[in-house]
Amino acid sequence: MPAKKQLTKAAQTKATTRKLITIAKKEFSQKGYSGASMERIVKAAGMTRGALYHHFDGKQGLFYAVFCKAQQEIGRRIEKKTEAVSDLWDQLVEGCHGFLEASSDPDLQRIVVIDAPAVLKWETVRFVDSNIEGSGFSLLKECIQELKTNHIIKPLPVDALAHQLNGAMDEAAVWIARSTDTRLALKEAKAVLDELLNALKV
């Protein structure tokens, strides 16, 4: 019986944190970090501020949890794009396009592209991107390794190539977010990215 109660409590905690993250994600994406209200979040969740602080270390701690979930969502969207094609090279191209598309989605853009580098330390952003399971960077690195193993791309160092491509796409995502015509910016970013990728082919 005690074990059952512990499992139930753990399940309740998980459900509570999931609910708070879902509500907070909407608040952060619509209002931005500075404009987001903890009062609105707890009210929408039907909780007290004390309950929120029991699960998260303040506003920044909640934003960190939302950022991690947003990174995983980008990874899922990339995987969906790559699963639609079987050719390894096409998977790289579609995956990179998927990253730019996901990063341009207003629900994710404000959190990942605009606010995260300012709210969280740069080292924290890079750590999450590089280490969280299913992140865009981990998928990019895996794809590059496969392409290299199959002699589809030039025999370049995998880590160096993955970081430089990732950095270029991160900067493109920021440029798209600040553009007055985001649809055109996304289209142009994809076209330039394709030229960069083609230079890697054997």
From TrEMBL:
Organism lineage string: Bacteria, Pseudomonadati, Thermodesulfobacteriota, Desulfobacteria, Desulfobacterales
Keywords from the named record: DNA-binding, Transcription, Transcription regulation
One MF term in the entry's GO annotations: transcription cis-regulatory region binding
Protein name, as recorded: TetR family transcriptional regulator
DNA-binding region as annotated in the record: 37-56
Highest taxon in the source lineage: Bacteria
UniProt keyword annotation of Lyase present: no
Residue ranges annotated for the HTH tetR-type domain, each copy included: 14-74
Keyword Nucleotide-binding: no
Entry coiled-coil feature ranges: none
